[in-house]
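User: Could you write out the 3D structure of this protein bound to 2-acetamido-2-deoxy-beta-D-glucopyranose? I've included everything you need below.
Assistant: Certainly. Input first, then the structure.
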Amino acid sequence: MAASRVFCLLAFTLLAVFFTVSCHNITQILSESPDYSSFNSYLSQTKLSDEINSRTTITVLVLNNDAMSSLAGKHPLSVIKTALSLLVLLDYYDPLKLHKISQGTTLTTTLYQTTGRAAGNAGFVNVTDLKGGKVGFGSAAPGSNLDANYTKSVKQIPYNISILEINAPIIAPGILTAPAPSNNMTGLLEKAGCKTFASMLVSSGVLKTYESTVQKGGLTVFAPSDEGFKSEGAAPDLTKLTQAEVVSLLEYHALAEYKPKGSLKINKDVISTLATNGAGKYDLTTSTSGDEVTLHTGVGPSRVADTVVDETPLVIFKVDKVLLPVELFGKSPSPAPEPVSAPSPTSASTPSPAKSPSPTKKPSPSPTKEPSPVAASPSPPAPPVDESSEGAAPSDSPTSLENSHAKNAAFHVNTPAYFTALVTLAATSLLI
Ligand SMILES: *[C@@H]1O[C@H](CO)[C@@H](O)[C@H](O)[C@H]1NC(C)=O
Ligand SMILES: *[C@@H]1O[C@H](CO)[C@@H](O)[C@H](O)[C@H]1NC(C)=O
Ligand SMILES: *[C@@H]1O[C@H](CO)[C@@H](O)[C@H](O)[C@H]1NC(C)=O
Ligand SMILES: *[C@@H]1O[C@H](CO)[C@@H](O)[C@H](O)[C@H]1NC(C)=O
Ligand SMILES: *[C@@H]1O[C@H](CO)[C@@H](O)[C@H](O)[C@H]1NC(C)=O
């Protein structure tokens, strides 16, 4: 009896671990009602959905298609993103709590506040309990009205996420008329302390590729800081690269999609870059520790230090090291020692979710965005010999994608069985 209780407890503990990472999927929840299709689509386009899924203890104020029509298609995506980020409250309000606000009125922090661009009180929302059971919402900026009223509850997962419908957007002063984001990438890069990178983009002509990629729908840039080109020992010897290789290296520093910080934080996939093609994979993986994201090339890690600009569909991050693709830097001239799989002390505390399919994923296998193994047909270069600095087992390097595919497959097959076994055991223990 006692033993079975202990076992039951153990099973539940394992279940808790099982569900820790991805506990809700806003896209999935809202897709259950066609009333929110426009709102849901904009959450995905602006990648606010990733940001919402990476957080707990939040409230999302949703607009039905009617209420959304005052924003949809009428403003640039970057403006709509700001307006929608004002509707994500960093606190949990269920209908009960809404009607129990002390003093009847309160200010609450929104996702807009976390961007660091909200002036004064503009990143906060005023929630006020009105007479007659109504609850009003408005910008906390002085002189603002209560723009919207609560209409109904959509869903609650206590105390992780609450979804409430309101009848109009909340508009903070100035957000709809925000000046068009600067499209001068070199100017932005220079100001951010990435002059070397900026000048290489110009002299190689890769800047044009970047610019046309933004036009095509989205671009993410990982710009190494000027220090990253100098840092002792870690800086690459670019003089040995051919012109074509420099182009590949620079293309390796960008993705043909808009992937802001929240999306990088929950990323589990192998990411293709602009340099990805049939001849070389030139891909990346990520790991997350708290709010910190690290990129892994297979040769060495590079920390995402700063967001230089995040204006949908363009995001530029400053990274602390040049990203070295194994396709260009993997072949070390030194005699290849057997790669040591012991993690280095520096990265031991940040296990990469992309590298070890831990049982934290949902049981249902989602379609992965990994490049198909076909891309590997022109045989890839030898595996990197210096993985020790990345603290990853050699088989986890991007050059052995087949291997990780196999692992993933095994994971997808095994997980539901593992899950079922736990549930069965837990249920059995309860019955005893
Ligand atoms: C809420 O989120 C936590 C992780 O922060 C998770 O462990 C828990 O299972 C979630 N609760 C529900 C009901 O999904
Ligand atoms: C969330 O749900 C959507 C729609 O069902 C799905 O396409 C997407 O892959 C899911 N995201 C995650 C992180 O599971
Ligand atoms: C919220 O707005 C209402 C109406 O404009 C105002 O009376 C109230 O003081 C505001 N609440 C806070 C906490 O500022
Ligand atoms: C919200 O409700 C109040 C009180 O009934 C009403 O005066 C106000 O016009 C409503 N606002 C909106 C935006 O519906
Ligand atoms: C972009 O910014 C740089 C540096 O601030 C400046 O030299 C250049 O003329 C600008 N280019 C355009 C097209 O405005």
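Confidence is low (pLDDT under 50) at residues 1-20, 332-432.
User: Perfect, thank you.
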